[in-house]
Amino acid sequence: MGFADDAKETAEAVGRKVERAWEDTTDRIGDKADEVKADADVKKAEAERDSVQKRNEVKEDLRDS
Fold first, then answer.
1. Residue 1 in 3-state DSSP?
2. CA-based Rg of the chain, rounded to a whole angstrom?
3. Helices marked H in the chain
4. Band of the pLDDT at 1, cuts 50, 70, 90?
């Protein structure tokens, strides 16, 4: 193998490594976006739950009066 062949193999290996790193990074960004969306959904659901609980408490107080 000559110098050119070694350089070509090295360049190809570096290219594959860069491609894998890029794919990993885009996967991490997507995962983080999914996590943020899920957290927002949970907070929204908790707020709705709290609202329903408070409304039910008020209704129950009105029935008792």
1. coil
2. 28
3. 3-64
4. low
